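Most newcomers find our protein records easier to grasp once they have seen one. There is nothing in a record beyond a sequence line and a structure line. Getting from the letters to the tokens is the skill we practise here. An example says more than a description, so a record of this kind follows:
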Amino acid sequence: GNQIGSNEERLRRMATVIIPRDILDVEFRGFSDWPGYCFGDDGTGWTAKIPGNNRHRIGEIWRPFATGLNHNGYFHATLKRPGGRWAALLHRLILLLFRGPASDGLEARHLNGIRTDNRLCNLVWGTKRENMADQYLHGTRVRGERHPQALLTDEEVIQIRQRRILGEECAIIARDFGIAQSTVSRISLGQRRTDI
């Protein structure tokens, strides 16, 4: 099962010692096949693993466990047990525990656009289209000259369109900007760099 179940009450009793009083109303859940870890609906991850050489021993004290930021700015967590480890994005773990597995084709969405806000109230499963719409709404979609693979600045794209409007040939423009003629054509027709 996905819930801590009988251990939940024990966790809540221990929480009075290590968790500030204002967080006691947080609901905690964990994976029964990954003991010593739990996650709160407030977006936090906790462990009772004993630090040091006894990594797989589980103690009585729960504490926040370290999560890192990946290259895309999302928190990730690594759960360990004898014979295995599970590395996953924190928001996906929380959705899995509190909302169940995603249906085919669904992915995690951060409703407010803040990738590090993993509170359950900010997370839902949704379609890729919904996720992209969120990115446009929040201004977090990387496109145009901000895209790491962009060859042209926004100003250069405007110059290309203006030169085509004035009748200049694609081959000359392409040579001046060091790009393919087909790219010049697509930019001038509005098929590329549609953000400008």
